[in-house]
Amino acid sequence: MLAMRSALLGLMSLFVAGAMLCGGCAINKATATVDPSAHLASIKRVHVVQVEGDGSNVNQMIADRLNQMGFVATTSKDKVKDVDAVVTYWDKWQWDMTMYLLDLTIVVRDPATDFPLATGNSMPSWLTRKSAPEMVDEVFGNIFKGVKP
């Protein structure tokens, strides 16, 4: 009877440990929504608006990635009107032995109306932590899936 109880406790311990490893904290969230009226393929010139107090240069990472993708991207703290799209973003950083980007949301907007043409988000779990450039790449990969600049 004692051996059976020990075996049962061992199985239950394995089940709980497995559930914790495969549970909600292991879920990566990567989404993108594109407005049906948006013509992302017509976008050539993009301006990234730097968030006030951004000491991590996320704006530059975003602009660099857009340039690599074939867009002409600039960045500053001000919005500009002589572009095809304005990009805004929201970044949330977390401390866990080192600072890392926990959550990134990027919005591609119409420069005349500020209307959101597309929104993308990357929020990897702590188990599969990604670098900030990888998260920028993931967001734009989802927003511009199948679109050639």
Describe this entry's structure for a reader.
- The structure is a single chain.
- The protein has 149 residues and is α/β, with parallel strands linked by helices.
- 30% of the residues lie in helices and 32% in strands.
- The chain has 3 helices and 6 strands; from the N terminus they run H-E-E-H-E-E-E-E-H.
- It has a 6-stranded mixed β-sheet with strand order 1-6-5-4-2-3, with helices on one face.
- Helix 2 packs across helix 3.
- The radius of gyration is 21 Å and the shape is globular.
Class from secondary-structure proportions: alpha/beta
The whole-number mean of residue pLDDT values reads: 82
Q: Major sheet: size, sense and barrel closure? A: 6 strands, mixed
* Overall morphology: globular
- What string, H for helix and E for strand, traces the elements in order? HEEHEEEEH
Strand order across the largest sheet: 1-6-5-4-2-3
Query: Helix share of residues?
Result: 25-40%
Distance between the termini: 70 Å
Provide the gyration radius in Å. 21 Å
